[in-house]
Design brief:
Strand order of the largest sheet: 1-26-25-24-23
Largest sheet: 5 strands, antiparallel
Strand content: over 45%
Mean pLDDT: 88
Shape: globular
Number of strands: 29
Order of helices and strands: EEEEEEEEEEEEEEEEEEEEEEEEEEEEE
Number of helices: 0
Length: 355
């Protein structure tokens, strides 16, 4: 990444590559870095094909010198995945699981030996109807991998309790099962995103955003009420939210067709503590650094920008790093296990960038 919005600069030694690129056989949307320490440079990619049959690919950078990605697995998926996440297992002690959202929440298991991917569980909370309310997003609790929260167009959020087979003292090869812990009407309109916070022990607090233009915070221990953290002045739908990984007081959100990223402080509800405004087209993705207070956002204007927000509440005028892609970026992810790397995707391409 180049400072001040310039082009990517080569590293001083000339040995380390700064960018690796993978071209998929389909348009890409959903994307996730693997968290396992023994699976470096592994990502899952979801296709965006406007029909029923879609794909998820698992790829891994196997040759750093030549920048070669290998397809380690692939499976069919009904409809495009709205989100993909690997199990937040940074120690490599859980089964190698992957979750996807679309019409339903699905949990997949990757075989240790063959790399074959098998559907472990399809989680459906609406068993009495032939129709489903599509899931817009979900989040996998980083401190308790048995908790997954989903958001839906039917105005609800659902918290699932998983049994992932990580038994202590016995070998358990049973498939993953799930049961609804709670379902709540979270917003007045569609819910577009959900994310767990690390506050209060990191297990019980989550927030959601939706078409009613609000950010709402919930506590699993006190679901009889919620806290409205922010409401968009124009009542524009809010599409994404993302908690700061180091300081759970801060979260970021963005509005439909918005040209800025809104930074909120839960201690000062309703008023943004900062707005990041250097985009010339609508913002499509946001991700906090896993290891610091830096922030990254990607926009439809082919740019990925990294911001340093340390000087808040003073205005933050310019990003500290910028990268220009060859297409309109629709997704950005910062690798939790490899914080020097971010991934972006645009059109049929995925790039990982050293930051």
């Amino acid at each position: 990444m180049a400072p001040g919005g310039g082009q990517m600069m080569p590293s001083s030694g000339g040995k380390r590559k700064e960018i690796y690129k993978y071209d998929a056989p389909f348009t890409l949307y959903a994307m996730s870095w693997s968290n396992r320490p023994d699976k470096k440079y592994r990502l899952a990619l979801g296709s965006f094909i406007e029909e029923y049959s879609n794909k998820v690919q698992i790829i891994q950078l196997t040759d750093e010198e030549n920048g070669e990605f290998k397809v380690k697995g692939s499976f069919d998926h009904p409809y495009p995945t709205t989100k993909i996440l690997w199990i937040p297992d940074t120690k490599g002690v859980c089964p190698d699981l992957l979750a996807t959202s679309g019409d339903y929440l699905r949990i997949w298991k990757v075989s240790e030996n063959s790399g074959e991917v098998k559907l472990e569980s399809l989680l459906n909370n609406n068993k009495n109807s032939d129709f489903c309310a599509p899931l817009t997003s979900f989040d996998w609790n980083e401190l308790d991998p048995n908790l997954v929260g989903t958001s839906s167009i039917d105005t609800t959020c659902t918290i699932w309790g998983l049994e992932t087979g990580q038994a202590i003292g016995r070998i358990d090869n049973n498939s993953v099962t799930g049961m609804v812990r709670t379902q709540l009407i979270a917003h007045d309109k569609e819910v577009f995103d959900i994310a767990f916070s690390r506050a209060g022990g990191g297990r019980d607090i989550f927030a959601s955003v939706g078409a009613d233009g609000s950010v709402r915070m919930f506590d699993l221990r006190h679901l009889e009420h919620s806290t409205i953290i922010y409401e968009d002045a124009q009542q524009q739908p809010l599409l994404r939210l993302c908690w700061n990984k180091q300081d759970p007081n801060y979260l970021a959100t963005m509005a439909t067709d918005g040209l800025e990223v809104i930074i909120l402080d839960v201690r000062v509800p309703c008023t943004p503590v900062a707005t990041l405004k250097n985009h010339t087209a609508c913002v499509n993705g946001i991700a906090w650094a896993p290891h610091s207070s830096c922030h990254i956002c990607s926009a439809d204007d082919h740019q990925a920008l990294i911001w340093d927000i340390q000087q808040m509440p003073r205005p933050i005028d310019d990003p500290i790093l910028a990268y220009r892609a060859d297409g309109e970026i629709n997704q950005v992810q910062w690798a939790a296990g490899q914080p020097d790397w971010i991934a972006i995707c645009y059109n049929q391409s995925m790039e990982i960038l050293r930051v």
